[in-house]
Amino acid sequence: MYGLYPLIRPLVFCLDAESAHHLTLCALKKAHKIGLLKEAAVATGKGVEVMGLHFPSVVGLAAGLDKNGDFIDALGALGFGFIEVGTVTPRPQPGNPKPRLFRIPEAQAIINRMGFNNLGVDHLIDQVNSSRYRGIIGINIGKNFDTPIERAVDDYLIGLDKVFPFASYVTVNISSPNTANLRDLQSRDQLAALLGPLKERQQQLQQQHQRTVPLVLKIAPDMDEETLAALAETLLVHEIDGVIATNTTLSRQGVEHSRHGNEQGGLSGAPLTQRSTAVVKALYQQLGDKIPIIAAGGIVSADDAQAKLDAGAKLVQVYSGLIYRGPQLVQEIVRRCQ
């Protein structure tokens, strides 16, 4: 069934991007429920140990595709070594006005300005609880759009409290370009003010629940060298368990002359490949093996995934590549990089 995607994709791409996204996930869920979707082999090797967790393979699903955790079981059948759901906020919110998701097929790219649209953290927890998937599940948390940036830590603490008992790891998303001022939290002082309370709460929760749940930070690709170095230093000081590099970019390099290329939002897909890999490499030079890097951004082939690993990443995540290549991409990366 996985090999059918190249035949189905032209039909799916006739729909607007957000409708196609929802329809495809619903069809995948239905196929899995009635037994048409066979479980793909997750790994051909021993897997990899990262953050004290055993990942059956190095390739996972990035946050954003399944914001509410509604499709965990079906996505888990595609052969991912791990799945990250969210971004989820304490309260439900509709996100930005539509249209807010745009494909650029000639560049294998996507622009989105979704704005953390989700049904709230309580819904996501219900979905995680009801799923049968027993693999690694990361839960990506964010702040509500109407929470002032100076009180952002309150939203992240609420999210961490709620998802902690159910997550394999928790990702703190401060790098989406689609929530006003969110990326300001990446500056040295604001980042320290955020990570301090989160690490303290993590330690309290670990004692309370008698389980270890790594805390991961997701960062943007658009920082200069000085800002990135300061961020790496802050991660080390606060002993963050992992970092995801990177989120989408505000750059339009590679899509300047494309239809939808000037739409507002974050750009993902092939145009992000080199920049994201460069960030991974620069981070690794700062962090070494002290803090593991999960690479995301522009992985549309197994070679792209291998380049991220060669740059210093321990794991990789896909999203836009999955939209253009289908589930076959996951299997290619497993075979190439395991």
Give a brief rundown of this model.
This protein has eleven helices and 13 strands. With 338 residues, it is of the alpha/beta class. The protein has one domain (2-337): TIM Barrel (Alpha-Beta Barrel).
Q: Can you offer a commentary on this structure?
A:
The protein has a single domain, classed as TIM Barrel (Alpha-Beta Barrel), CATH 3.20.20.70. The strands form 3 sheets. The protein has an 8-stranded parallel β-barrel, surrounded by 5 helices. The chain has helices at 5-12, 17-33, 72-76, 121-130, 152-163, 188-209, 225-237, 273-287, 302-311, 320-325, 328-337; strands at residues 48-50, 53-55, 59-61, 82-88, 101-104, 109-112, 136-141, 169-173, 215-219, 242-245, 266-269, 293-296, 315-318. It is built from 11 helices and 13 strands. The protein starts with a helix and ends with a helix. With 338 residues, the chain is α/β, with parallel strands linked by helices. The chain is globular.
Q: How are the SSEs placed, and which strands pair?
A:
Blueprint: H1 5-12, H2 17-33, E1 48-50, E2 53-55, E3 59-61, H3 72-76, E4 82-88, E5 101-104, E6 109-112, H4 121-130, E7 136-141, H5 152-163, E8 169-173, H6 188-209, E9 215-219, H7 225-237, E10 242-245, E11 266-269, H8 273-287, E12 293-296, H9 302-311, E13 315-318, H10 320-325, H11 328-337
Parallel strand pairs: 3-4, 3-13, 4-7, 7-8, 8-9, 9-10, 10-12, 12-13
Antiparallel strand pairs: 1-2, 5-6, 6-11
